[in-house]
Amino acid sequence: MRTLMWGLAGLFVAYVAGCSAVSAWHSHALASVPVGAGRVEVLRALGQPDVVEHAGAPFTRYASSGCSGRCAQRWWYENRLGLDTEAWSVELDASDRVLVTSRWTSP
Hints:
Blueprint: H1 2-31, H2 39-46, E1 51-54, E2 73-78, E3 86-92, E4 98-105
Antiparallel strand pairs: 1-2, 2-3, 3-4
């Protein structure tokens, strides 16, 4: 029984550490992408997005409204270990240039 408890505690610690590592990595990578950067720079820093949202059609897991105005696409990067409570987004214009980057969290 004691071994089982230590095993479960170890799994919990590993889960929390993994979730924190994913969060730190994405936050650091997102901070390296300046406004005006091109699509290639975003892909180099963050890799392929988990979800590509097109203008006007929100990705409702995190946003209540789709990107609008000059925004043509919003790329989403999720922390899947965070059980859909944390994501990062990059909004791109029609020329594939970064308009804004954001970190999204759910309470």
